[in-house]
Amino acid sequence: MLSLKSFIKNVELHNPHEPEFLQAVTEVAEDIIPYINDYHPEFESLKILERIAEPERVISFRVAWLDDKNEIQVNRGYRVQMNSAIGPYKGGLRFAPDVNLSILKFLAFEQVFKNSLTSLPIGGGKGGSDFDPKGKSDNEIMRFCQSFMTELYRHIGAETDVPAGDIGVGTREIGYLFGQYKRIQNNFTGVLTGKGAHWGGSYIRPEATGYGLLYFVECIYDFNNESLEGKVITISGAGNVAYYAAEKAISLGAKVITLSNSQGTIYDKEGFSLEKLAYVETLGRDLYKYPRKFKSATYHEGEKPWQFKCDIALPCATQNELDEADAKKLVKNGCKCVAEGANMPSTAEAIKVFHKAKVYFAPGKAANAGGVAVSGLEMSQNSIRQQWPSAKVDTRLKAIMENIHKTCVRYGKEENGYINYLKGANIGGFIKVANAMKAQGVL
Ligand code: GLU
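# glutamic acid complex -> structure
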């Protein structure tokens, strides 16, 4: 019998000082170990879980670049190639000052399960740098991206490892990275996703994570014979995921009352309209300016959105942004559903609060899989040298999210009817990868 305690102890021993990685592994192991013991005892001697928790390869490299003052700057670049059992490594690049190996290993680990849940043939990886794009000029961003790719290119490829965006990496950065790859390799290929729609990208990729999140929430409500019409939603973040989540929520008849960044939260008691959202986009990081234009709103410096009464909370900012105290506030105010647009935004303690209160808690690996799913569709379109119309991509995205929901219900339904989406996503994502690893031998 596999023991959770000794497994976790071992992972801790082998990965000291990596709290986020340990958190992500523990979150999965708590569901997977009882499942293995009950249904797949053969995975124990095959050491499937031990192997899944060990990256196939970790690459770390120097990224030196010249800033606008002609001074040399040095950053660290990484690519964590976590698991290729069901397809080429796939996952975003994050450029943010807090990036370190623990964060990238947790993201790569989550990506393995998320990508498996999409039903597409993609393995898991993640990468990035401690480079801070904030306050950098366009030329500095370009020079950084070119230097980063000048090392990364030798480790990636359309059939090997296909990076994309994440925090701090959007279409602009993907453009510079793609340009440099193409220049070095003299090869126009689907080596990155999130490309511009006119140079190999897929329609709906920018919208995919936010739209997919709302499709997933719609599935949760459909399953309970309810609609999103009139539901009050709090959203954290003001980036790509938050923005398109808000847009889709509004179009489905819900009322979105907050958006935020690391400096503070906008609370608009009348809810955002599409026009108001477009205005938020023009503000950049200066969200505090919003109430000057819209009197129905207040700005809450240094505060998070979770104090406001809502039916649904969508954390779309970053890891561990929603803690136990936030979870208790949400539950006390009657929140019924929490779906993660970001990766691991809820702490382990917060998740326990949600489960105890029977709040529907949809973890990022299920609820935010729409982004990587459309990346997978971008890879398909690149392979056949075609571009599908928006409506076709959107329909496929919706079908993928519905399928993930079904998988979560299948593996996460408890005796009292409550759906433990975390358990469903963990087990549903694990099985395919585990069976592929078993088939491919000891690697
Ligand atoms: N960074 C996104 C995620 O967390 C997307 C990755 C991709 O498209 O490869 O899933």
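# post-check
The chain is about 50% helix and 15% strand.
Residues 208-358 form a domain with the Rossmann fold fold (CATH 3.40.50.720).
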